[in-house]
Each structure stands twice: as structure tokens, then as C-alpha cells.
Design goal:
The chain has one domain. 78% of the residues lie in helices and 0% in strands. The longest helix is centred in the C-terminal third of the chain and has 28 residues. It is elongated, with a radius of gyration of 16 Å.
Length: 147
């Protein structure tokens, strides 16, 4: 279990780091990283872009650990790992974008913004599942599954 969670944390942090890179070059110089800091009410200063980047990596690792705990029980192939990763990306979108930004913080989302965050969240899930499957394959022997 511990090795699976470590793989998930690593994969989640790397997928979050990929999102940081995408958000840094998309739509102005790191504007979307400020948006992430705004979701947590940590914007409004010169460090909000860095705070948003750190939040993405940390949240990516947390969701990666949860992903590892789930995928360990059901997945035995790369395809299943990627499929569960896409579901985790959808959960990422529901929790962070819909619940945190829209419901809790009352930040209005345009249709473009909603679809943008949905696509990037699914990309996070796709990369998470792919990296986890790759790490699992590289480590060779899988640990026994327990229910």
C-alpha cells in the first residue's frame, strides 16, 4: 500500500507540475495560476502566481495519493489506470472548479472558463493515470492487493 501511494504522490505531483507549465504559458503570463490562488483566497499580492503554482503541485500530489489508493484495488493494466485517472481528473474538476470556486467562493465562470478547466482537469487525470501505470510497470513486481 505504501509503495502504491508513493507512486501516486509522485505521479500526481508531476501531473500538477505539467499543469503549472501549461498555465504559465497559456492566456498571458501565468494568469491562470492567479486564478487558482483566488479560489483559496490567497490572491491579491505579488506572490499569488507562485502560490497558485505551489497549490497545483501540492493538490496534484494529494489527488495522486487518493488515486493510488483507489486504483490499487481495481486496476491491473495501463488502460484501467488511465481510465481511473480520467475519472480522477473529473473529480478534480468537480471539487476544485465547481465546488470550491463556484459554490464556495462565488466566482463566476464563463462557458470558456468552465470548458477550459474541464479539459485541463481531464488532462491532469490522463497524465496521472499514465504516469502511475508507467511507474508501476517500471517497479516490476506489484504488491499484493488487499481488500
Amino acid at each position: 500500500m505504501q509503495q502504491a501511494v508513493q507512486r501516486g504522490l509522485r505521479a500526481g505531483a508531476l501531473a500538477g507540475l505539467l499543469l503549472v507549465g501549461i498555465f504559465f504559458v497559456d492566456y498571458g503570463p501565468a494568469t491562470n495560476l492567479t486564478t487558482i490562488a483566488r479560489w483559496f483566497a490567497l490572491d491579491g499580492n505579488a506572490w499569488s502566481k507562485l502560490i497558485g503554482a505551489i497549490l497545483l503541485v501540492v493538490l496534484g500530489a494529494i489527488f495522486g495519493g487518493l488515486f493510488a489508493a483507489l486504483v490499487r484495488l481495481w486496476s491491473s493494466s495501463l488502460f484501467k489506470s488511465v481510465l481511473v485517472g480520467l475519472v480522477m481528473g473529473l473529480c478534480w474538476w468537480v471539487v476544485l472548479v465547481l465546488l470550491l470556486s463556484t459554490v464556495v467562493r462565488h466566482i463566476q465562470q464563463s462557458l470558456y472558463g468552465t470548458l477550459f478547466w474541464l479539459v485541463t482537469s481531464l488532462l491532469y487525470g490522463l497524465v496521472l493515470g499514465s504516469l502511475y501505470g508507467k511507474f508501476q510497470k517500471q517497479e516490476g513486481a506489484r504488491e499484493p492487493r488487499t481488500v
